[in-house]
Amino acid sequence: xxxxxxxxxxxxxxxxxxxxxxxxxxxxxxxxxxxxxxxxxxxxxxxxxxxxxxxxxxxxxxxxxxxxxxxxxxxxxxxxxxxxxxxxxxxxxxxxxxxxxxxxxxxxxxxxxxxxxx
Length: 118
What we know:
Its main location: membrane. Keywords: Membrane, Transmembrane, Transmembrane helix. The protein is mainly α. It has one domain (2-107): Rossmann fold, CATH 3.40.50. It is 36% helix and 8% strand. The chain has 5 helices and 3 strands, in the order βαβααβαα. Helix 1 links the parallel strand 1 (2-3) and strand 2 (31-34).
């Protein structure tokens, strides 16, 4: 199943919209690709706290792939660190630390660094 900014950013900016869209799409399949985290507004990104929760998952057997474009041209050798810094730059000024840190931790649980266009 494919999800993008349209599944996360309704006019009301209620992050529950993203969760509801995820739950609807679960009926059609358990493998998800959520593309372009760069485009998801911080207020809507809060939905990923629930969607990517490994302790109380919406669907225990769902597999979720997230894509993120990074702009750092210096390879630190640590893909998780690169993803963390990129997400912090995107969402850090809009979310409080008590939301931001768990959110980034969940979406960077496992990171595969792909060079080139996704």
